[in-house]
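# step 3/5: fold
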Amino acid sequence: MLDLELLKTLVCVVDEGSFTRAGDRVHRTQSTVSQQVRRLEELVGRTLLMRDRTGNQVTATEHGELLTQYARRLIALSQEAQDALASDVWRTPIRIGVPEDFDAKRMAAILSGFVKARPEARLETVAGMSADLHSKLSGGEIEIALVKREPGSGPCLASWPEALVWVRGRMVEVPPEEGEPVPLALFPQGCVYRKRAIRSLDHSKRSWRVAFGSHSLTGIQAAVASGLGITVLPTTAVLPEHSVCFDLPRLPPTELALVSAGGAMNAVQSALVDFLREAIPV
């Protein structure tokens, strides 16, 4: 096995081109540096360095150049391992799931604020529908998730009520009760907003049809603004290009919840939870 200290000496001599200057750099005598190089040459069975005729200048042989390249990589990898082990954050990254139907710009700003406050943290963010995020939590793919759900439907680290409204484009009229079906712009099956919209219309015996579908909040917002359909959104996601519909059934609130995979969290994971508790209130 190659000794890292011997490899460091080799790199130093190659960089300095002199045993004497290398010794000054590592605070060792010239003879000690020479002995270390000889030990390394014995280990690999190759001549690694050559002196010029004056004996003052040292250059690497072909094998010396090759080993020096590997030595630099091994030294760098060793330092990387030491840095990783020195911090729990780097050893255990924070993996968080965020809902696909959450305002991406707002979420990015929130997470960016946390990274600035805790520069030692390394976040890995996964976006998906809330049902998918629950599966990732169960599978150990993420440690924390922000999900949309029915209020009080399970344990959580924090929760916020989400007021919901019907939203249409500014120039769009809602069909009368006895008229055409209400055209809906909806998220996929499993989305709590979709369930609210359909249940509300079914309960009031209003006919409806799916006019547009998307996983993306941006896609739904754009479809509504352009008049392709009407949808259900939290009040925080209503855009200036939208109008709130007051002639459709009132909607009970949903819940935005911060949940974990269970078990103890490290200090930085706990700090992220505390940060989100303060930053997310809707």
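# step 4/5: annotate
DSSP finds ten helices and twelve strands in the chain.
# step 5/5: archive (pending)
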